[in-house]
Amino acid sequence: MGILEKIAEIEREIARTQKNKATEYHLGLLKAKLAKYRSQLLEPSKKGEKGEGFDVLKSGDARVALIGFPSVGKSTMLSTLTKTESEAANYEFTTLTCIPGVIEYQGANIQLLDLPGIIEGAAQGKGRGRQVIAVARTADLVLMMLDATKPNVHRELLERELECVGIRLNKRKPNIYFKQKKGGGLSFNATCSLTRCNEKMVQTILHSFKIFNAEVLFREDCTEDEFIDVVTANRVYLPCLYVYNKIDQISIEEVDRLARQPNSIVVSCNMKLNLDYMLEALWEALQLIRVYTKKPGAPPDFDDGLILRKGVSVEHVCHAIHRTLAAQFKYALVWGTSTKYSPQRVGIAHVMADEDVIQVVKRSNDCFR
Question: Cα torsion at 96, 97, 102, 105 (round to 10°)?
Fold first, then answer.
């Protein structure tokens, strides 16, 4: 029996097993086996020649993967937002490979990848699903294109396909400490009351992975699925924006309903409706900020800002300017919303905000940039 048959058999058994106190450990064991087989399915085969991939070199300040079913408007979106022309037509599977483009927005270069359409069963390798998903795992954000004229079941199917291959959308990593040891058995602790998982369940799951010596610490009330994610250690947690295209073909009431859903944006690529708001939401979801540099006695350089991630410190800014600057750092003067007054003299651990201006002073009292 192959891996696909084993996965299908376990999924059928989970579906027909009633969930209650008597079966929760059995279900936990089945879920652990399912995660193990799915991980094996994603691993590249060691035998034979390598298959043709279509990943492209990562460039720019962030990477966004455009995912969706065939013929939902992904190629039109790429051609509208970037200078890259992607073939768009009214038939399915127009795009057969990965086509990269660059969105130039607020001084940042955001790489947008137009991927071939996903079909149901992509996680098991149908179509070019496994290659599409492999590229999506390298992205900083998933832009899920959906057809507003079709039922919401398409969104659920895409989420399920990505969930099967370890891509968790709009979720954060479970706060569980796990370390495999060479001996000593299982050491289990929790800093909070657990209602969805217990020590026996943890031991059952670890035994299915042939792990008998480990240290486990729950810092929050997590489920057995979240603990399995921590044990497998191959999950990717990505933000996702759900973009509903073709809103010019539905009623205004339906547009309002879709727009009010969490992380959802309504657009029309053909009529170029609401694309500006989508770019703003993309910027916020990627958590990008602009930091401008200033030379002493000169105005800030607003034409060439540094594109960084939210939460960066002055040390990160120094590394972005020059790799040796942090070692020579003395202090910095910062103008902007991250300070109490402008300019404020700050240390290397000061956290920067969007559109801050910085002047770095080195130990030799010479100012850099």
Answer: 60
User: Taking the CB of residue 366, how many other CB atoms lie within 10 A of it?
Assistant: 10
pLDDT in tens, 343-354: 999 999 999 999
Count Cβ atoms below 10 Å from residue 266 Cβ, excluding itself: 25
Q: From residue 229, how far is each of 167, 223, 290 by CA, in Å?
A: 10, 10, 34
Angle formed at CA 17 by CA 214 and CA 206, multiple of 5 degrees? 5
pTM of the predicted structure, to 2 decimals: 0.81
Q: Where are the alpha helices (DSSP H) in 103-208?
A: 129-136, 153-164, 199-208
> Residue 321: CB partners within 8 Å, gap ≥ 6?
293, 306, 360, 368, 369
- Give the mean pLDDT of 171-177: 92
Q: Are strands 186-190 and 62-68 parallel, antiparallel or unpaired?
A: unpaired
Residues 99-145 have pLDDT tens digits of: 888 999 988 999 998 877 664 554 455 545 566 777 788 899 999 99
* CB-based contacts of 337, cutoff 8 Å, min separation 6: 353, 354, 355, 356
DSSP state of 23: T
| Length reported for the chain | 369
Mention every residue, 6+ apart, whose C-beta is less than 8 A from residue 154.
69, 146, 147
Report the half-sphere exposure of 212 (CA within 13 A, side-chain side).
3
Residue 204 has pLDDT above 80, yes or no: yes
Please list the alpha-helical segments (H only) found in 209-335: 224-232, 252-259, 275-286, 314-321
CA-closest candidate to residue 115, choices 127, 124, 105: 127
Q: Which region among 6-20, 164-178, 263-277 has the lowest average model confidence (pLDDT)?
A: 6-20
> Cβ–Cβ contacts within 10 Å for residue 193, how many?
7
Contacts of 275 (CB under 8 A, 6+ apart): 80, 81, 267, 269
Residue 54 pLDDT level (bands cut at 50, 70, 90):
low
Separation CA 116–CA 69 (nearest Å): 8
